[in-house]
Write a structure and sequence with these properties.
Elements lengths: L1 H15 L2 E4 L5 H12 L3 E6 L2 H9 L8 E5 L5 H15 L4 E4 L15 H29 L3 E5 L13 H20 L6 E6 L6 H4 L9 H10 L4 H13 L6 E3 L3 H11 L15
Parallel strand pairs: 1-2, 1-4, 2-3, 4-5, 5-6, 6-7
Bound molecules: NADP nicotinamide-adenine-dinucleotide phosphate.
Length: 281
């Protein structure tokens, strides 16, 4: 009798715990957000397309076994995203937040040099992956009756263009557009869809892009002025996501006032984010 009651209480308490699913959370910004959600008491599902990266991520965090799940999910495959929803919903019985964060950088080159393989990989990961992830999460959340979906955008989402980065920029511009469209179409449905703008972060994304302008000193200079390791934007944006109750909201880390402040601070304090190995954590 007592055992049954305790088992019931255990299941009840766990079913009341808030949960978050983050695609592309085996490294960088996604991993940093996952760690911050754990600090905030959430159950966190980490995922990525590479088993080695995912295992390394899980072994880098300290957690109570019940609070973390790890699921291999290649966002280029919509079936993987549906499987991610189904597995986590079955495990924890609810998904409060879903973040489409998986993304790849582009080789820095002019558009007419881009190979079909690169074009397909960037659009399949950054655009199709985020679109299918949003569809899967919105459909699941409409059935459960609540939830929030956020899509990570980056360079290009505001319409800015730059030689060599336009393929990536096109993908993120499209993500910003469809996220806004989902939010409009979901008005009154009780589901929140929003955009995350984490600014400029020194992660594998910028650090390891072979042959990219990111390896050149002028790009490192601008990252050293305006950029961050992913932990600070993650900490800030996780709190914003948890507290935001407005549909269609853009949550931004690197505001215009922060940009001005950082340019002024740079006159007196120099940083070298590229020397740190923290981005590999
Ligand atoms: N770094 C920046 O300055 C910056 C600025 C603005 C926005 N962003 C955006 O922030 C997000 C995270 O970037 P990051 O800087 O943290 O880069 P990162 O360290 O390279 O992390 C990218 C994550 O996406 C995953 N991923 C890549 N391809 C995938 C696929 N096909 N399926 C599932 N997961 C995949 C990676 O894991 P696996 O490789 O193991 O699959 C990894 O977990 C991206 O959407 C990026 O566009 C970055």
């Amino acid at each position: 009798m007592w055992n049954a009651l305790l088992a019931f209480l255990f299941i009840y308490i766990h079913s009341m715990m808030k949960t978050v699913v983050i695609t592309g959370s085996s490294k960088g910004f996604g991993l940093a957000m996952g760690k911050e959600f754990l600090n905030q008491g959430y159950h966190v599902a980490f995922s990525g397309s590479n088993a080695q990266n995912l295992n390394r991520a899980i072994s880098s965090i300290t957690f109570d076994g019940e609070k973390v799940a790890s699921v291999l999910c290649d966002v280029r495959n919509c079936g993987d995203l549906q499987n991610l929803w189904d597995m986590i919903f079955k495990k924890w019985g609810r998904i409060d937040l879903w973040i489409n964060n998986a993304g790849v950088a582009q080789k820095t080159e002019k558009l007419w040099h881009s190979s079909t393989v690169d074009v397909k990989n960037i659009f399949d990961t950054n655009l199709l992956g985020a679109f299918c992830g949003t569809q899967v999460a919105v459909n699941g959340m409409l059935k459960q009756g609540f939830g929030k979906v956020y899509n990570t955008v980056g360079f290009g989402s505001t319409g800015m263009t730059r030689t060599g980065l336009n393929l990536y920029g096109t993908s993120k511009h499209a993500v910003a557009h469809f996220t806004k469209a989902f939010a409009n179409e979901l008005k009154g449905a009780g589901i929140i869809v929003g955009t995350l703008q984490p600014g400029m972060m020194v992660t594998d994304f910028v650090n390891a892009a072979d042959g990219s302008i990111y390896n050149k000193s002028e790009v490192q200079n601008i990252y050293n002025i305006l950029g961050d390791l992913p932990d600070a934007p993650a900490k800030y944006l996780v709190k914003k996501m948890i507290h935001n109750n407005t549909n269609g909201k853009l949550l931004t880390w690197l505001s215009s006032s922060k940009v001005i402040f950082r340019f002024m601070k740079h006159l007196f304090v120099k940083r070298d984010l590229f020397k740190s190995d923290a981005h590999q954590k």
